Structures are given as structure tokens and as C-alpha cells.
Amino acid sequence: MANPLYDTLFGRHAGKTTAFLHLEGGVTLTHAGFLSRAGRFANVLSELGVKPGDRLAVQIDKSADALALYAACVQAGVIFLPLNPAYTAEEVRYFVTDSGAAAFVCQPARRNEMAPLAKDTGCQLETLGTENDGSFADRAASAPDQFETVAREADDLAAFLYTSGTTGRSKGAMLTQENLLSNAQVLVDHWGFTGDDVLLHALPIFHTHGLFVASNIMLLTGGAMIFLPKFDLEEVIAQLPRATAMMGVPTFYTRLLGDARFNRDLVGHMRLFISGSAPLLAETHVAFEQRTGHRILERYGMTETNMNTSNPYEGERRAGTVGFPLPGVELKICDPSSGQELPQGEIGVIEVRGPNVFKGYWQMPEKTREELRDDGFFITGDLGRVDEDGYVAIVGRGKDLIISGGFNVYPKEVELVLDDQPGVLESAVIGVPHPDFGEAVVGVLVPRDNGPDLAAIEAAMAGKLARYKQPKKLIVADELPRNTMGKVQKNVLRDVYAGLFTAPG
Ligand code: AMP
Predict the structure, then answer these.
(1) Tens digit of each residue's pLDDT (9 = 90 or more) over 57-76
(2) Could you tell me if the CB of 322 is within 6 A of ligand 1?
(3) What ligand 1 atom has the least distance to the C-alpha of 396?
(4) Does residue 360 sit within a domain?
(5) Domain end (from 114, 149, 184)
(6) How many CB atoms neighbour CB 337 within 10 A?
(7) Burial 355-374 (b: 16+ CB within 10 A, else e)
(8) How many Å apart are CA 16 and CA 19, to the nearest integer?
(9) CB 400 less than 6 A from any atom of ligand 1
């Protein structure tokens, strides 16, 4: 094959007049229409002098054109580098500089704001909006829609996704054609996707979940997507009856459960709900099944590895777990300090190896060596354990581990107890500096109903957790800080409560 990723995801749908994207306002784009848009965009890239192997930084709103730009990059052998539209110009400057992007496509309204960074970094600046607007769209209008696909090898780079960088500098994860393709193929098979599926797509497409898991799967099968600009409860409820499957972060599902219209009748025809990117509370899993009759299928992955594990499509989808390693993925639980594999049932760092695992961090050979072993195992930094039936459970991020008075405290274990208390909707457990213990365990609680009775919770904790695991302080907060992918930002909580035990006075 000349270009495995292009040929398999895109090229094979050439000329197909079946629906690919259902867009706002009742507009539908066919596969052929989408590919001709991508072909024009690939011609524009070449007209701009963006060559195979160059990086194209892209910070635009989700739209059919945004996805077509991804397709164009694959066809032209250009490395696609999508960025969260929420990033400031200063943040973007880092990504453009670090990646050495040849060109940067931004939202039309931000052109002036971005012009200085483009000038300073010597990268070309173009704009693309969601309504066929912007300088890139203008160029596309007069470009041919046929483009001669650039030959690529399976090992060539297809995309850079920068890690969210909650600790230290954000790193550019280099993903190859093979990383993306192998994962899409495994997931289509594992989750039973076919060309008859219609996926409700409300995720952002600058992240692995919405771009690679969701879009690549549907591109591979030739099915269709209801492509929403973002998660909007009203719109999702309106569109669900047309869909057969949905992928989401846990907050999508908790928000749906908060609406009485979300019931068995609305989703009776659905085939599958999938959740990932952040832990799904066992309670949400149970409430979802009670309300809809569907068991959410939870899976686990990350920017650097695509998807690693999944609950089964057929068979028990076990709440509080992320299922089994996907076919072709090896997973082991290792001692964080020695790297030795631990016996089954023990908690340690999850390491994975397989065709899904990235090539390394762009221009960061040391970081790559720290996290990617010579034998190909990637040290995920997630802490997990494998139960007696082989189901993997995530118990937190390594960096969230609390060491209090020399004892290891896994936040998840404490959170599970806190979540069970009356008046508690959810909780986050963090470690904050403490003069005696090094770190002290602190529980942040989000109330429900009449709110929690803190004295009663402290008493309940005493019977359930060893003393060193019991929070030294419980704090009630309106909500937990979350990023766009629904992940609780524990670094933010740690900053807010850093002075709890050490601040003067
Ligand atoms: P990202 O690179 O932004 O996709 O974030 C990846 C991280 O999200 C993983 O390393 C996990 O810490 C977390 N994550 C992803 N899926 C799950 C899940 N199903 N349960 C718990 N954590 C998850």
C-alpha cells in the first residue's frame, strides 16, 4: 500500500455517496464529499510548501473541515498537530516553537492575536473557520479536489499529540501510522462496529479520544457520525434516537443521568455506550444500567498509547474496572521503584507494550528513555491492579500517590469510601504538605441532598480505613476542577490547599 493510514481510513471510501457526517442544521456530508474537501486541503498544503514530514499545527473549532484537515495531512504525509482551542497565544507559541511547525492554522477571529508568534517562529499563518471561511478555505475554493496521495510507511509519523502537561512541560507524543491504524482495527473488531453504525460524536477532536478512538473507528468501518460541535445536553438528547453508539467521558453520562428525559425509551435502539479518559464511578455505572438497561463499556487509554484495555463487548462489563488488555497489547503491573513485575493482585505502575505504543517524545530523548523501556514497555504512570479474573482497575496516577508519615496512600481507596457516605456526590483525595507527616491526606467533598455530616463521616472512616489513610481534613466544595476531558485536576486542588497545614497562622 502506498499510504496505509490514508488508504485504509479514507481512500477506500472514494466515490461513496453514503452519509459520513451529520452536521448541524440537517446538513449531511457524504464520504465522497468529505474526501473531495480533504483533497482540496491537501493541495493547499502543498501549495503552501508544507512538505511530507513537516508539522501542521491546528487550533480551530470542531467542524467537518477540521476533520478534513486531518485527512488532508494524512494524504499529504504531513504530521497533524491538533491543539485545544482554549490555549492562549502564549501556550500556542510553545507548541509551535517546540514542534517546529511549518504552518499554523488558527481560528479566523484570532488571526491578529496569533500573527506575532507566527512571525517570530517563522511559521506560515492561515485561518479556517467552521462555515467555509478563513484564508485556508479561500485557497481551497480554487484548488483541485484530487490529490496524489503521498507514499508513507507504517512506521512514519502521522500525528503529534501534546500531553496535557499537568506536571512539567507538555511533551509531543509522536504517533505513527501503525500506532493509529492497528488500534482502530482492534477496536472496530472488539466493539463490533460496522458500516451500519451511527456514532454520536460530541467529543473534542484535538484529543486522542475524539480524534483517534471515535473518528478513526468510524472512518475504518465507513459508518456515519452525528458530529456535534460540543456536548450540549439538549442536542445530545435530541440526536440520540438517530444514533447506534456513543462515546463519552464520564461527565457526559452523569449529565445525561441528571435529565429525566434520558430513559429506556430514548436509548432502546442503541447498541453501545463507551466511556473513557477519566474514571467512571461504579455508582454511575449502576445508575446508568438501572435507568437505561445498558451497561456502559469502560476502556482505558492515553495520548501516548492509544487504547490499552477494554471491558468486553460480550461478557461481563465490570464496574470500577477498565477490563482486559486489548488483543496485541501486553500489560504488566510493576514495582514503581525497581520496575520488577509484581504478583497478581498487587498495586503497582501499569506498563504496556504493543503496536499501539508511540515512538517517543519529540526532541526529548531523555524523557523518552525515562518512560519508554528498551524492550518496548511504556511506563504509563498510572497505578493499577489486576483482579483474580484478569480485569484491570486503575487506582490513580503515580504522581497522585500520597506518602503520609512514610506510608503509601492510594487516593482512590479513600475516595471510594468517601463517595459512599450520605450527602456526598463525589470526592477527590489529595496530599498536601504537612510539617509532621510530609504529606497529609485531605478529602475534598462535593455535597448532594442536604450535604455531608463531616463528624459522621470522620467516625465512619475510622471503622473502614487504617488511621494513616484517614483524611486529616475534609473540605466541602461546590464542584471539582475538571479539564475538558472530564479529568479531575488534582494539581489545581493541591495548589489551592497547599498551605492548609503549613501556612503561617
Ligand atoms: P490522556 O493522555 O489525556 O488521554 O490521559 C490519559 C490518562 O487518563 C490515563 O493515563 C489515565 O490516568 C486516565 N484515564 C483514561 N481512561 C481512564 C479510565 N477509563 N479510568 C481511569 N482513568 C483513565
Answers:
(1) 999 999 999 999 999 999 99
(2) yes
(3) 12
(4) no
(5) 149
(6) 8
(7) bbbbbbbbebeebbeebbee
(8) 8
(9) no
